């Protein structure tokens, strides 16, 4: 529904410090008109320059609380609200190189009244600046 708003412009950053870059992160939004409990976020797939990150390497931070993607099915006491920018972090030794990157984010969401999973996909070119 709101796929083109999933990836937040100008949020691509490496994580860690200059001596030990441990991955990268970017801002994302829900492609849904209501907030959801985090246990209803079934998957967030991050693809950078054609390389899709494993679920085990992905974390989601929502209003200061960080969860591994693989732990979300058991998170019943936290929500991601419509329009709220969350941070998706991916463990990747060395992070990303400076410059433009093709970024795709696909979300699979469990919507209580829908018989099939909801969600959406967004694709943008983001530039990592040092």
Task: Give structural attributes.
Immunoglobulin-like; 5-stranded antiparallel beta sheet; 11 strands; 4-stranded antiparallel beta sheet; globular; mainly beta; 130 residues
**Name given to the CATH architecture:** Sandwich
CATH class descriptor? Mainly Beta
Q: What is the helix fraction of residues, given as a range?
A: under 10%
Gross morphology: globular
Structural class: mainly beta
- Taken in chain order, the helices and strands follow as EEEEEEEEEEE
CA radius of gyration is 14 Å
Strand order of the largest sheet: 1-2-9-6-7
**Overall number of strands:** 11
Overall average residue pLDDT: 91
CA distance, first residue to last residue = 33 Å
- Beta-strand percentage range: over 45%
User: How is the main sheet built?
Assistant: 5 strands, antiparallel
Low-pLDDT stretches: none
What fold name goes in the CATH topology slot?
A: Immunoglobulin-like
The total tally of domains equals 1
Q: How many individual helices?
A: 0
